[in-house]
Amino acid sequence: MCAASRSLHPPWWQSAVFYQIYPWSFQDSDNDGIGDLRGIRSRLKYLRGAQHSLGVDAIWLSPIYPSPMHDFGYDVSDYVNIDARFGTLKDFEDLLEEAHRLGLRVIMDLVLNHTSDQHEWFRDSRASRLSTKRNWYCWADGKSCGRRPSNWNARFGGPSWTWDPEARQYYLHSFLKEQPDLNWEEPSVRAAMWDVVRFWLDRGVDGFRLDAINWLGKDTRWPNNPFRLGLRGYTRQHHLYDRDQALAHDSMRELRQVISAYPDAVLIGEAAADTPGGPASFYGKGDDELQLVFDFRLMKSPWCAKSFRLFLSQHVPSIPQGGWPTIVMSNHDQPRHIDRYGTGGDAEARARVAALLLLTMPGTPFLYYGEEVGMRNGKLRYRDLRDPYTKRFWPFRPGRDPARTPMQWDASVHAGFTTHRPWLPLPPDSSQRNVETEAADPRSLWSLYRRLLALRRMSPALSRGDYHVIEEGPCDCVLYEREARTKTGTVERMLVAVNFSQRPCEFALPSGSSQGLVLASTTADAATSTWDPARIRLGPDEGQLVRLD
Ligand code: NOJ
């Protein structure tokens, strides 16, 4: 695996487990039905406390900046403040202090490609062609006969150009029209954004999750994108000119320089899966762009051994030397993986196996709030929806609101999230599927997550070890080994074996394979037992974690 794995002092984010908090939905403290920072703070001990805590290492907060919330915070109107719905800067500082006291790192979301149309930069830019900020955004004249400057389509539907009567030009927006794209060719834009980065790092945040980075550069001659036949909407074009330009990489290199003054800070990039060279291109040469880049392949893949094996045997090794993999199964933009992987099978059993994979595959895992209790996608009616993107494509696409419903803490009427009507409805099963109920049950999904997190924390092999895929198992099973030297100089070896099929399977590994002890099984009633490589038995949708002798 990557050279960094062998370093004697690996950076914290390599062995850390991240937990994504969607601030709207984690905990409401002032009972307005919307989550907030004081609420999050009150729940930090749940994530990392002395007793009964889940045991993660870092939280990533989806955007909490002031915003008109057309894109639920990804339309920022002030990068150096906190949205009043969530609290104040002081509340954020208190949260940060408390998190650090508990040993939890805090990562902020940073939206680089666009701002809100309510940001004062955009207000200033649109006010006059002579504004000093005119060039901060992408303005262009239309073509003859009232045509737009190019045929580009926005990611969230419709054209990417909107006529602004005040500015008397078109402006570019790769997402919603309320999210004008910044012009990253303009040095003062980059300088202003790096000031934002310093503002938060100086306050003690531990890094950033960078939004939509492959969109940063555009071809500013505005050539038309070529058409693709047979597809609809955004995918009806080859996005050759409106994204994926070299400038995005130049900007990430510049940002890496900026954060070099903060040696512990981490940059985590989000790029479209179909960006040329793949999102992994944002590792750069391995040490000059981003330390972590999301890999969304498991978030899109079906539940089958083949795609997980491919991920381990081809995709992870393709990361440049010095880069470090990420393991992501769910986030705020996609249906939750319990439902996605569960299609056509036993969703509960697969969610347990997914937990094992998430926490033992090589790389930094990202948990999405609520997955530890098996929160499902909300079954929402049109009138419940809040996200404009979800509304626009409802009911033809699942949308994003179903994965953003409030955290299920207990069996009370609003699941302990709020006492008011929550901003999105809770599912009826929240009275059984919640932290309080599952924490009291040693066989629950929550207890499995907690156990695996504890095992991972104690194990150098699982948290930062090298790995190799064992090819000898049956085709429905995936087996891999992790290995690392411990502080005392001994070598620790762990093995993970997963049966992706709905049938039991029995097989043997070649003679000479190591014996061991089964530390955890995803089948609730399996007790700790010895691992005999000559007679391996896995139940339907079962995964086992083994310490090899
Ligand atoms: C990716 C974010 O995850 C998504 O929620 C957002 O809508 C877009 N980027 C645009 O900022």
Features:
6-stranded antiparallel β-sheet, 8-stranded parallel β-sheet, binds 1-deoxynojirimycin, disordered N terminus, 16% strand, alpha/beta, Immunoglobulin-like, 549 residues, TIM Barrel, 2 domains
What is the total domain count?
2
Structural class: alpha/beta
Number of beta strands: 19
What characterizes the major β-sheet? 8 strands, parallel
Alpha-carbon distance between the termini?
22 Å
Question: What is the overall number of helices?
Answer: 15
If you compute it from the alpha carbons, what radius of gyration comes out, rounded to the nearest whole angstrom? 24 Å
CATH superfamily of the largest domain: Glycosidases
If classified by CATH, what would the architecture of the largest domain be? Alpha-Beta Barrel
Q: Bound small molecules, which ones?
A: 1-deoxynojirimycin
Low-confidence stretches: 1-6
Let me know the average pLDDT.
95
Helix content: 10-25%
What's the CATH class label of the largest domain? Alpha Beta
